[in-house]
Design brief:
By secondary structure, the chain is α/β, with parallel strands linked by helices. It has nine helices and five strands. Helix 1 crosses helix 9 and helix 2 packs antiparallel against helix 3. The N and C termini lie close together (5 Å).
């Protein structure tokens, strides 16, 4: 079993974060998955509708009022599971957080207080690949992005943030199974390097 760790699977929209996060949890015996959209997506949509806002993740109200509470809740649940000795895999975009050295330092301190490590993985694809995937999945949360593509890319570029520990490319040149195997090998190699005494 791996020693406790907070593994952040982060990246822009449609980079394949969720598939990678789920595959990693299947490979690590004491891991649990915290998928932000699965845990809090319906709650966020309800809050936005009740406030008369569009159901997307790009408006001012979401970023200033809803998102901080959404992410604080996700973080609190993650710490509870770290304290139970788990490897906690969080699937969420996390760009502003990973660009904030104070946030990264605070989370690292919170992890250390629970005898856990922090590993921040940024999943990257080309903007063209991301756009193609958004069109294919046809989700309402992507409507604004697709309608205002250039503005979206200025607000949320796909380049890695400064706080990422590992950057992994996940474009479409390889089969999904092969990409997943390669990504998991990269993650587990980094785990073995960073976590002395851990074994799978």
């Amino acid at each position: 079993m791996f020693t406790p760790c907070l593994v952040l699977i982060a990246g822009g929209a449609a980079t394949g974060k969720s598939g990678l996060a789920r595959a990693l949890v299947r490979r690590v015996p004491n891991a649990i998955l915290l998928d932000k959209d699965r845990l809090l997506g319906a709650w966020v949509d309800l809050v936005l509708r009740a406030s008369g806002e569009e159901v997307d993740r790009d408006g001012r109200y979401y970023w200033q009022d809803v998102r901080p509470q959404e992410y604080a809740t996700l973080e609190a649940v993650a710490y509870d599971h770290l304290a139970l000795g788990k490897v906690v895999v969080v699937d969420a975009p996390l760009r502003p957080e990973l660009n904030d050295p104070a946030w990264v330092a605070r989370v690292r301190t919170e992890c250390a207080a629970r005898a856990a490590r922090l590993l921040a993985i940024w999943v990257i694809v080309s903007p063209d690949t991301a756009r193609r995937r958004m069109l294919a999945r046809g989700e309402a949360r992507d409507d604004w992005k697709l309608a205002h593509w250039e503005e979206f890319l200025r607000r949320q570029p796909y380049e890695p943030p400064t706080g990422a520990s590992v950057v992994i490319e996940n474009d479409d040149e390889e089969s999904p199974d092969r990409v997943t195997a390669r990504l998991l090998d990269t993650i587990q190699s980094r785990m073995a390097t960073d976590w002395e005494g851990a074994s799978s």
